[in-house]
Design goal:
CATH topology: Spore Coat Polysaccharide Biosynthesis Protein SpsA, Chain A
Distance between the termini: 28 Å
CATH class: Alpha Beta
Largest sheet: 9 strands, mixed
Shape: globular
Number of domains: 1
CATH superfamily: Spore Coat Polysaccharide Biosynthesis Protein SpsA, Chain A
Length: about 260
Amino acid sequence: MDAIVIAGGAAQPGQPLYPLVGGQPKARLPVCGKPMIQWVLDALDNAQTIERVVIVGLADVEGLRCAKLAAALPDQGGMLENIRYGVRRGLAMGSGSSCAAIVSSDIPAVLPEQVDWVVRSAEESEHDLYYNVVRRAVMERRFPGSNRSYVRLKDAEVCGGDLNVIRKSMATVNEELWGKIIAARKNALKQAALLGFDTLFLLIFRLMSLQDAVERVSRRVGVRGRALDCPYAEIAMDVDKPHQFELVQRYLEERSRGQ
């Protein structure tokens, strides 16, 4: 399977990571002696299920290493645009897999076997989108104090993972849906309208189970989705704030000493 690494964006003045990153790409933030994205590339290089890597949002890859790297593409203006562009480039290059793994560049704690778990879990069924969720207890056991935002459901509190799988054909069809999703990306009212206010109401009052939520949202947007109940907190431990950077750096230092 192809892996599309989303590496666009740099911290701007006033944003939490700006004192650490300055005006440089966030993906190049040094973590335990190497750029944050390099940890992710190392995991993908050593994952048995990944054949090829495409980086989107970081065209200059000088100093980075990845034996599976097939292309490094410029930023397309936003996360969703970058995902779509990367998947389309993968399609143009040709591949035997009908799906692609979408990987954020800011989850440096991810391991090769965790990548393989996600890919193999997705290969068990025929859905359009496989979205990882990590339960609060799993996150807090591995990364106490991470202060992630959780969605409270009837049967669980979960946060979203940053390593997911999409069917490649999704990038070439349903222009209207993609337009709506991109337009709603930073507008809460548009997001609510896209999902349906009935679904939003049920989420707010914790009247839906995880499976209920997946089924309702899938029907609403016309996508066959499946939530992966991920046992690996590392997949959801992205670095967005200084305290998360410090937490992940300590974790990686301790993990390196234990090897």
